[in-house]
Please model this.
Amino acid sequence: MWFLFPALLINLLIILIPALLTVAMAFVSWDGTSDPVFAGFDNFRAMFADPVFSSALLNNVKWTALFLTVPIIMGLVAASLLLMVRKGRTFFQIVYFLPAIIATVVIARVWQGMIYNPDGGLIGWLHIFGFHLDDPLAHPSTALLAVASVDLWHWWGFMAVIFFAAFRQVDRAQIEAARLDGAGYFQLMRYILLPAIRPTIVLMMIMTVIWSFLAFDFVYVLTQGGPAFSSEVLSTLSYRYAFYNFTMGPAAAVALVISLFGLVATIFYVRVQQQELES
Amino acid sequence: MKSRAVVVKSCVTASRRMALICAMLSVLVPATATSAFAGDPISLWYQRGATPDQQRILQKDLVDPFNAANPGSPLTLDVRAGGSGDKQIRMAVLAGRGPDLVMTPGPSYALPLIESGHLLPLDAYIQKYHLDQRILAPALKAGIYKGHIYVLPRTFETMVLYYNKTLFEKNGWQPPKTLADLNKLAAAMQAKGITPFSVGNGDWRDANEWHVTVVLNHFAGPDNVYKALKGELPWTAPVFQQAIGLLNDWYQKGWFGKDYFSLTSDQQALRLAKGEAGMAPNGTFSFDFMTKAFAQTGQELGVVALPSLRDGVPYPTYEIGIGSTLSINKSSSNPDAAAAFLNYLYSDAFYDKISKDWPGDWNLPLTSVDATKLEKNVSPLFANTVTSFSKGVRDGNYGYTTWTYWPPATEDYLIRGIEQVWLGKITVNQYLQTMQDTFAKELKDGKVPPLPPR
Model:
């Protein structure tokens, strides 16, 4: 048991104490400099009364729905194709994984300036040929999707590499037997590969839920939640409360809401794990 | 730093090899370290971000001359990213650490640091170096808190109207002085397919507040803005409704073009320089962008004061912007050296250098600013703009920029909420009501920066 202590100590110092302080901060009125004053549930009332909070929460739900489907499907398809390819497999893995290792600020600026921009980007270039597309970051109806698309491009390759590693653990005998029985690609996926890597898929989906509610960097760099709060998410809202408005209480209250979703996802994962162990 | 004598003496009892090393090291100790502020080196975290060229200018004009004159307490300059530098400085100072010279984006950012006792009052240093005679009074007074001065204004900026002079001359247009002139000019421009205002917030979302600042000061008027900032007039008053309504009108009529949310600063300047747009309400801090863009196209840049948008609002009026302040950290181990740096910063010697290399952003509010002197280093256009601004302020024709005089949450809502008005999500009345509610709370909590009397 003693070998668990170093990890526990790190958890205590870096995670538990700051988490408890955040919980406490959600119940005080504090600007970060003066003395905190107990405020009861005022911060939560102010948070729920802010119309931007409900639209930010909805944006996070939309973000989660998008990331639970598109990159996972793309990752599974790409991983299954990698399984079938012998030559060039390493090359494709590198190509798929590259966006995941580039700094998010760099990716965001490249998309903002070189792709979406109507003057200097790909969209601006298409104008020359008569294709008058608008900058999707500039419209409330498309801003969130435009930001999410950048993150999707950045993220799906990571999923592909994770799923490929999982596929490689599947017993080759099962795959060969299925092929000998005449199974096609879709039957192979449905009856052999996907069931075999189900724990990995479930884990990635749960992590996706947690990470979706933590989404911050692309939104902050590309739109800062605009235009007109249309791409605001909970983490950018919390950041704004804390570092623009200097109201730490509401910022902590929003952070607790984010954590709540993460907690629900974690409990679900632990239950699934327990059920699998028991079975 | 120890003197040479002390270093050699401490090595006398060491081994021969150590003695040799000590002797070699002692050569590196300056023969004299007689600066009046000899002590710890001092630091400045430059929080606005700077391109590599700008960093070279800072090193050449700001750091090297000061260090040459003060070798005992050299300045270390640390350039931080523009979007997060102020937050890093705030966290460090609140933790009792941070740089000796504290740079903030304005008085409202410095206020919490003053109230929590993290900044030194500067009165004694101001007296010692006669800074009150060298810095314009309205700008200096923005740093007063409970009778003491804690912050000095680093940038002295205002909103002006840039315009394409070549385009104007070609079409026989005159820069506008009234709302009627502006309406007529904008209609003429749109008839020719020219966008009236080259503006955007693609790389700086806070650019929204420049336009709110313009209508509040040039339509509602500085007197009304002053009353509202003192809590004597609500932001929902009819004059402010009309002011924001006018701004919304400009947006709806297409005066801002269709790419407002995409255009970056250099793209806005280039569209103006090419004649695709006719005018650009922007800050004096953008002078550098504008001159570079016009140098590319060969057309001529013009700069005038913004028009009076309502009868009774004087022309010209210049809203005072202090986009950056400097203070001394209470935890500084060498405040005297930090004050000596401020003395150098507010000198004609430094202003001569920086106004030549980096006009616009480093416009210090010096009383000695004079068109004739300035023209030796900068374009007549910049010299005239700056001296007109200084004269306007001295004459009392000044207003208030939102980034200097508004409290933080109100300013944040002002920036983001106006987009909701432009995009039809909320009405002007709803926007101003939320602004009023937020402002009233911050006024009650003491977060509105102190306003010197008009």
About this structure: The first strand of chain B starts at residue 42 and ends at 46. The CA atoms of residues 94 and 116 of chain B lie 8 Å apart. Chain B touches chain A at residues 87, 90, 94, 112-113, 115-116, 118, 201-202, 205, 258-264, 267, 270-271, 408-409, 412, 416, 419-420, 422-423, 425, 445, 447 (CB under 8 Å). Confidence is low (pLDDT under 50) at residues 1-15, 19-35 of chain B.
